């Protein structure tokens, strides 16, 4: 056994970092996922040595063999979390221990070497500390952190790899959806499902997202922003979007979201919103919801609001839902009162402008 919960990081400064002036220009309008900081974290794993060779080094290309296991058998997982600029110019993470736990669980589901949760957390802290000047300021802005791991062993054979590469990169982020639309329009997938029981739906692995892209492309062709998937067994129950969980708000003030059970990603934003709603005395249900009931309730007025949520998009109102043979609007087609209330409450906690009763925020500096 290897005691690998604590590693010392070797630091190599970038020889030509982005200048302060150029960085300021980039941070003025970063978009999402297109700009990257100067450094990255790299930690290696091998069956004989355990986790070793932890480094913070200049961000750059990596070299892999054509027979690298991930290219053939797709052992790969990732996470997404954010560092937020605080009012006093410090910085904080939001519930990073939950990302660490989910990363470990994803690794176990994909038969990969689980990264110790303490190591996950230290890698995030190290990168934010080094590239702290890349955290943008302003409403909705953050430093998006992308930890990921893949099978790096060179072999052709269907078995769990014995070597892995864990990395963290960081990207200054603005709004997730282009144009800052007040709500999104969904396309209901008729031919494709995201996950089935016993599959990898609860793991945050690239294969889940790759499988969703053909449905997302169909949604774009139909003039929609996102795809919504139904269950794989009966093709009737709403599950989740291509990359986000979904919530429903009813006229009696209650909210509902599809239950976990192995087919839906256990979103950290989802869990946070459920907690905030319960704190406010709102009736919360984690229960199946049929697509035909979604349409019926929207048209009758019983359903007042709907929203999607996730780390990248935070809380995004759903204004319209389309599919083959149906097209309906939710409420007035824009953000609803409870949606905005929950979003404002969550983002205020994340950015240090509201009380944090659950101890979710970890201040870094």
UniProtKB/TrEMBL annotation:
<keyword id="KW-0808">Transferase</keyword>
<keyword id="KW-0100">Branched-chain amino acid biosynthesis</keyword>
<feature type="modified residue" description="N6-(pyridoxal phosphate)lysine">
    <location>
        <position position="204"/>
    </location>
</feature>
<dbReference type="InterPro" id="IPR001544">
    <property type="entry name" value="Aminotrans_IV"/>
</dbReference>
<dbReference type="GO" id="GO:0009097">
    <property type="term" value="P:isoleucine biosynthetic process"/>
</dbReference>
<dbReference type="GO" id="GO:0009098">
    <property type="term" value="P:L-leucine biosynthetic process"/>
</dbReference>
<protein>
    <recommendedName>
        <fullName>Branched-chain-amino-acid aminotransferase</fullName>
        <ecNumber>2.6.1.42</ecNumber>
    </recommendedName>
</protein>
<dbReference type="InterPro" id="IPR043131">
    <property type="entry name" value="BCAT-like_N"/>
</dbReference>
<dbReference type="GO" id="GO:0009099">
    <property type="term" value="P:L-valine biosynthetic process"/>
</dbReference>
<comment type="pathway">
    <text>Amino-acid biosynthesis; L-leucine biosynthesis; L-leucine from 3-methyl-2-oxobutanoate: step 4/4.</text>
</comment>
<dbReference type="InterPro" id="IPR043132">
    <property type="entry name" value="BCAT-like_C"/>
</dbReference>
<comment type="function">
    <text>Acts on leucine, isoleucine and valine.</text>
</comment>
<dbReference type="InterPro" id="IPR018300">
    <property type="entry name" value="Aminotrans_IV_CS"/>
</dbReference>
<keyword id="KW-0663">Pyridoxal phosphate</keyword>
<comment type="pathway">
    <text>Amino-acid biosynthesis; L-isoleucine biosynthesis; L-isoleucine from 2-oxobutanoate: step 4/4.</text>
</comment>
<dbReference type="Pfam" id="PF01063">
    <property type="entry name" value="Aminotran_4"/>
</dbReference>
<comment type="similarity">
    <text>Belongs to the class-IV pyridoxal-phosphate-dependent aminotransferase family.</text>
</comment>
<keyword id="KW-0032">Aminotransferase</keyword>
<dbReference type="InterPro" id="IPR033939">
    <property type="entry name" value="BCAT_family"/>
</dbReference>
<dbReference type="GO" id="GO:0004084">
    <property type="term" value="F:branched-chain-amino-acid transaminase activity"/>
</dbReference>
<dbReference type="InterPro" id="IPR036038">
    <property type="entry name" value="Aminotransferase-like"/>
</dbReference>
<dbReference type="InterPro" id="IPR005786">
    <property type="entry name" value="B_amino_transII"/>
</dbReference>
<keyword id="KW-0028">Amino-acid biosynthesis</keyword>
């Amino acid at each position: 056994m290897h005691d690998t919960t604590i590693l010392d990081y070797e630091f190599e400064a970038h020889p030509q970092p982005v200048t302060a002036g150029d960085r300021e220009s980039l941070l003025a309008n970063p978009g999402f996922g297109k700009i990257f900081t100067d450094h990255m974290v790299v930690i290696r794993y091998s069956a004989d040595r355990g986790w070793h060779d932890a480094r913070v080094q200049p961000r750059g290309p990596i070299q892999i063999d054509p027979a690298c296991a991930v290219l053939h058998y797709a052992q790969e997982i990732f996470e997404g979390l954010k560092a937020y600029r605080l009012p006093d110019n410090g910085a904080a993470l939001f519930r990073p221990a939950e990302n660490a736990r989910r990363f470990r669980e994803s690794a176990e589901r994909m038969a990969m070497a689980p990264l110790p949760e303490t190591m996950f957390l230290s890698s995030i802290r190290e990168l934010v500390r080094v590239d702290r000047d890349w955290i943008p300021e302003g409403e909705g802005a953050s430093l998006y952190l992308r930890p990921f791991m893949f099978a790096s062993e060179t072999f052709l054979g269907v078995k769990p790899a014995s070597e892995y590469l864990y990395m963290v990169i960081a990207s200054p982020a603005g709004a997730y959806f282009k144009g800052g639309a007040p709500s999104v329009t969904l396309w209901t997938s008729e031919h494709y499902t995201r996950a089935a029981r016993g599959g990898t739906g609860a793991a945050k692995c690239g294969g889940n997202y790759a499988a969703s892209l053909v449905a997302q492309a169909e949604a774009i062709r139909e003039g929609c922003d996102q795809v919504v998937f139904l269950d794989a067994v009966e093709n009737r129950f709403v599950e989740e979007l291509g990359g986000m969980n979904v919530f429903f708000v009813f006229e009696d003030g209650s909210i509902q979201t599809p239950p976990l059970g192995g087919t839906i990603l256990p979103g950290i934003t989802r869990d946070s919103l459920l907690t905030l709603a319960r704190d406010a005395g709102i009736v919360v249900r984690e229960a199946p919801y049929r697509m035909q009931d979604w349409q019926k309730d929207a048209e009758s007025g019983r359903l007042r609001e709907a929203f999607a949520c996730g780390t990248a998009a935070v809380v995004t109102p759903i204004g319209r839902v389309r599919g083959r043979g149906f097209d309906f609007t939710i409420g007035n087609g824009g953000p609803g009162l409870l949606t905005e209330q929950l979003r404002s409450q969550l983002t205020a906690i994340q950015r240090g402008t509201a009380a944090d009763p659950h101890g979710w925020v970890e201040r870094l500096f």
